[in-house]
Amino acid sequence: MVSGSRNRESIVSLSSLVIGGGGLIGHYLVPLLIASGRNVSVLGRHARPRYPLPRAVCYISGNFCRQGLISDLLSCHAEVIHMAYATVPNTSFADPLGDLLQNLPPTVRLFIEAAKKNCRVVFISSGGTVYGPPQTLPITEDHPTAPISPYGLTKLTLEKYAFLYATTHGLKVTCVRPANAYGVGQRPFSGQGFVATAMASAMLGQTIKVFGSGEIIRDYIYVSDIAAGIFSALEHGQIGATYNVGSGIGVSNGEMVKLIGPLLQEVGFACHVEYMPERAFDVSRNVLDSSRLTASTGWVPKVQLPEGLICTREWLMKNMNEWSSGGSTGNDGEASR
Q: Which of the four pLDDT bands, split at 50, 70 and 90, describes residue 181?
């Protein structure tokens, strides 16, 4: 495998395209790219990015499915970070064919065009869904992949297409598999993000819906640490490699409610839990081993869960008028699970 590192002189003139960079993770990732000296463009499906971007960024409103647009953009960018995704796990389960058709063809076309134009690609996959039921914990990148959701299956299929084009057409690609994102800016009720939705439910006087008996374990990682992990994989990771980005710590949904309960009570909100039937596409446990990324790049998560939960609470309270209006639902065009 070839190192993705570059010296400072080459970075200064390097241009980066972030597809889906107007979403939550992009809000944290794009400033890191700017600070490294890159010229950054963001492609998003909305007229304006849903999250603020630095003024130096060129924001392009357009449909990722338009092959001509992608071809033109790749002609003037040396690297692309692809984090756009049109569905979330529950919508993919409800409409698996839609999940496939909305996400597979345009991303495969991206890989084809990037190989033609010799563009570096970092593909954001899903550490929470591609592995399926774990054989061991924490899960390394070499763990067998057996997704039980259409979302995870399509993500894994896209990974395989990426490495297919790496083998057959010389595509320079790195895959990143993030765990469950949470943190400041994550809008609740979007179909992803248990922490934000649980806190927001309590703030609105609603019950916190917990699927299963409260024993489903997830790896929660603060969104800025995910962005830093993606940037580290781009800067210092290996072309042809796959990297997990997680905390390595498992927390059940029942335990999470117990953690956020006192934090919400401190500011006058009560937590009431409603246990819902298990969902067929939820694995019982998912905790990621990110030691490969740490060994390759030096990346380590910096925001611990107690601190991250407090920051999330404060942001939700400060911006309650915005997210409670119902105008900010949706997955903001990026993969974050």
A: very high
At residue 59, what are phi and psi to the nearest 5 degrees?
A: -95, 130
Q: Which of these, 35, 43, 47, lies nearest to 69 by C-alpha position? A: 43
Return the number of other C-beta atoms located less than 10 Å from residue 108's C-beta.
16
For the residues 99-103, what does the mean pLDDT come to? 91
List b or e across 303-332, with b for residues whose CB sees 16 or more CB atoms inside 10 angstroms: bebeebbebbbebbeeeeeebeeeeeebbb
Range of the domain at 62: 8-181+221-245
* Separation of alpha carbons 45 and 330, rounded Å: 12
Q: Do 309 and 264 touch, CB atoms closer than 8 A?
A: no
DSSP alpha helices (H): ranges in the chain? 8-12, 24-35, 67-75, 89-94, 96-116, 150-169, 194-203, 223-236, 253-265, 291-297, 305-318, 320-323
Average pLDDT of the segment spanning 180-209: 96
Q: Are 337 and 210 in contact (CB under 8 A)?
A: no
Query: Is the Cα dihedral 293, 78, 152, 84 positive or negative?
Result: positive
Do 276 and 162 lie in a common domain? no
* 229 shares its domain with 87: yes
